[in-house]
Description:
CATH architecture of the largest domain: Orthogonal Bundle
Protein name: Mg2+ transporter
Order of helices and strands: EEHEEHHHEEHHHHHHH
Structural class: alpha+beta
Strand order of the largest sheet: 1-2-3-4
Transmembrane segments: 180-198, 204-224, 253-274, 280-305, 317-340
Shape: elongated
Number of helices: 11
Family: Belongs to the SLC41A transporter family.
Helix content: 55-70%
Organism: Candidatus Magasanikbacteria bacterium GW2011_GWA2_56_11
Subcellular location: Membrane
Number of domains: 2
Amino acid sequence: xxxxxxxxxxxxxxxxxxxxxxxxxxxxxxxxxxxxxxxxxxxxxxxxxxxxxxxxxxxxxxxxxxxxxxxxxxxxxxxxxxxxxxxxxxxxxxxxxxxxxxxxxxxxxxxxxxxxxxxxxxxxxxxxxxxxxxxxxxxxxxxxxxxxxxxxxxxxxxxxxxxxxxxxxxxxxxxxxxxxxxxxxxxxxxxxxxxxxxxxxxxxxxxxxxxxxxxxxxxxxxxxxxxxxxxxxxxxxxxxxxxxxxxxxxxxxxxxxxxxxxxxxxxxxxxxxxxxxxxxxxxxxxxxxxxxxxxxxxxxxxxxxxxxxxxxxxxxxxxxxxxxxxxxxxxxxxxxxxxxx
Length: 341
């Protein structure tokens, strides 16, 4: 066996210093069996036996041409199924080769390995020159890292963020510091709601029954807001790159359907109970609009907080709730004043 047909490759990739932190290049090994595609199975076997202890991974044999371009991949299991005189280029898989560029993200490499059931992923440059492979143990480390990160994100623990408040171990002072400011904002929002209601005293005096529907409108919009809030926080944790525009559009359509359904139900109920068409239309329309407005507080607010270092358990809930309450009350009395004046 000569070096022209089988040899350990030169670690050219090590000279590069500009790869992104999560690039596949940082998981690359060059100590793999590589042979000329014109070599025979017998020559490849001799190479593996001679250098077995030097390889970082020997699941696959990589065939290259005279310029170092990756031409095919042959698993060791398949290699021993061929006759010794068979040429590697005739035995190796050449069509549909799975390979990545050195700048490819590591999680994409792990995804390809799982999708195609591969124990190592070859790395090539823009000219398909073979640079090395991301071996199986590196792929497992990537998967472990990403799984651990996703589980922590699902628990709302982020690197660089403030530590998660453990109620059993954190001091009372710490718990109060992290909760009181946001609850104070909620209290101020409640006072704003009181001020809004007092501005519609004449409308309430003329239609006392309107007061009976205030808790219902506020509750329904808050409930749908809370559902969306839980969904978006969960989905942001699970999805690495949540397509928020498409996500917002789909949730918006669902919310529109919910507003139509519950608005119709309330209209029929109010009409049957009070025999007042104008009143029934006012409370039903107000409920529908309030439910539609919940998409802002249920999606946009938690999404914005997910981009900060604040714990959404302390921030998103109180802030989104008070904003939704103010919006719902404003919509309710504005619609009622317009239709019942």
